[in-house]
Design a protein that fits this description.
This is APC family permease. It comes from Streptomyces argyrophylli. One of its GO terms (cellular component) is membrane. By secondary structure, this protein is mainly alpha-helical. It has one domain: Amino acid/polyamine transporter I. Helices cover 73% and strands 0% of the residues.
Length: 486
């Protein structure tokens, strides 16, 4: 049956969010979790060169357009967060707007999506660490020990209190954004390769055949920004903190991504940057910072890319743990997974389960002789990304459906116009990602079809699960994602 505050130990039953440390996180703390999950340095150094290669010097605008789309989504999303206060975030919103069967499918999709976004990144941790060690010391390290060490490190970070994680992510985020700001300063001070140019903003350079691919990359770069609502139970004054953190994260990422990509264009010049990106996409940012700042800064960038990946892993790990905690409290997952550590107030058993799952996936890929980047990262991460985009789409649809059925004082712009526009834009974003899936996976058409099918298949599996819960565990089904409504 579902867990209530009276089912929990006395020390955990004293607040609306049993066990978790309420009032721990401010706007900046939550924004750190969200922006760290996006891994700005990794996205810029690893993906932006491909966006420039495909979209030309107009690539910066693609990130602005993606940010604007998600800002529109955030209008309805944050409005609903003031009314639906369940810890289930996405699946709670979708349940309240579209019904329990759809919501249960969304819950499964959230588990698979967030796990895919995290577990695949252990392959990226291995490759970035290997590249950094080789660059700095000329040595080669095997990838499996790095991934397993990362699992233990992230598991420990999730075990500690949420404010510990927020402080750690704050430090790591300052480091990874700071090195990009340092690059920007060097380019601006020296005037770029041939003087600073606004040509990237010209429509003739923005609306080119490669723009669709740039937009696909750009939407992927924001994945995880919506996880602000997952921390509601630990936020100070969540009715204000959650919307502020959401808008701050979207605004920062959109503007920062666009600015840094424009800086990369200026570093090489409008005429040469596309050729440079094609010749050495992985080294584009390292070459730029070596030229404009110095080799020591390139060494720092190598190190900070590793810490950027670690920050992303920890942010997703904490988000997953809170989804599992919520579903355990709902009674959908075993209640044991809902236990909270008495001192750190972290969902530590959910973290242990997630770490074990990650280790099993990593070991399975290693046993199959898979490449940590080409297979572990791309093949696990891509279904997770699609899953989170589908959750955003379902949440956008759920907002007007929910507000049609309840009494409220919210305006039509927030409850109808913005969510409907977001639905159209997010559907277009998903279409762009799916139509350019080969850019994300570097896999065969057959593998791509399978990877795209994972997310909708998981969602569909939620329908028979909902039917089973309604017949076999009606108490769980009846109280699923009820939370607290104002």
């Amino acid at each position: 049956m579902s867990v209530t505050t009276t089912d929990l130990p006395e020390e955990d039953a004293s607040s609306d969010a049993p066990g978790l440390r309420s009032g721990s996180l401010g706007t900046a703390d939550i924004a750190f979790f969200v922006v760290s999950a996006a891994a700005p340095l990794t996205v810029m150094a690893g993906v932006a060169p491909l966006a420039i290669l495909l979209g030309g010097i107009g690539a910066p605008v693609g990130y602005l357009l993606a940010g604007l789309t998600l800002a529109v989504f955030a209008v309805g999303f944050t409005t609903m967060s003031r009314h639906v206060t369940s810890g289930g975030a996405f699946y709670a919103f979708i349940t309240r707007g579209l019904g329990r069967p759809v919501g249960i499918g969304a819950a499964l999709l959230a588990l698979v999506g967030y796990n895919g976004m995290e577990i695949g990144v252990y392959g990226l941790l291995a490759t970035t660490t290997r590249d950094t060690v080789h660059s700095l010391f000329g040595s080669d390290v095997p990838w499996l020990p790095v991934s397993l060490a990362g699992l233990l490190l992230i598991g420990y970070g999730g075990f500690r209190s949420i404010d510990f994680g927020a402080k750690l992510l704050g430090v790591l985020l300052v480091a990874e954004t700071g090195i990009l700001v340092l690059l920007a300063g060097g380019v601006l001070l020296k005037g770029g390769a041939h003087g600073l140019s606004p040509a990237s903003l010209a429509p003739a350079h923005v609306f080119v055949p490669g723009t669709a691919a740039v937009l696909a990359f750009a939407f992927a770069a924001f994945t995880g920004f919506e996880s602000t609502v997952i921390y509601r139970r630990e936020a100070r004054d969540p009715e204000r903190t959650i919307p502020r953190a959401t808008y701050a994260a979207v605004g920062f990422l959109g503007l920062f991504y666009a600015f840094v990509v424009w800086i990369a264009v200026q570093a090489f010049g409008d005429e040469r940057v596309v050729r440079a990106a094609g010749e050495d996409p992985a080294g584009l940012f390292f070459t730029a910072i070596t030229t404009y700042v110095g080799g020591w800064a390139a060494d720092l960038m190598h190190v900070f890319i590793v810490t950027s990946v670690i920050a992303s892993l920890l942010a997703f790990h904490n988000a997953i743990n809170r989804y599992v905690l919520s579903l355990a409290e709902e009674g959908v997952l075993p209640r044991r997974l809902g236990r909270v550590h008495p001192r750190h107030r972290s969902p530590y058993l959910a973290g242990v389960a997630q770490t074990v799952l990650g280790a099993l996936v990593v070991l399975a890929f290693r046993a199959a002789g898979a490449d940590p980047y080409q297979q572990l990262l791309l093949w696990v991460n891509t279904p997770g990304m699609i899953g989170l985009l589908l959750l955003q789409l379902l949440a956008a649809i759920a907002v007007p459906c929910y507000f049609r059925r309840v009494r409220h004082a919210e305006g039509a712009v927030r409850t109808v116009a913005a969510p409907v526009l977001a639905t159209v834009l997010l559907a277009a974003a998903i279409a762009l990602v799916v139509s350019h899936i080969d850019l994300f996976t570097a896999a065969s058409p057959a593998v791509n079809v399978l990877l795209v099918a994972v997310a909708p298949a998981v969602f569909v599996l939620g329908l028979p699960l909902a039917w089973w819960l309604r017949r076999s565990r009606p108490d769980v089904y009846a109280t699923f994602a009820t939370g607290t409504t104002k």
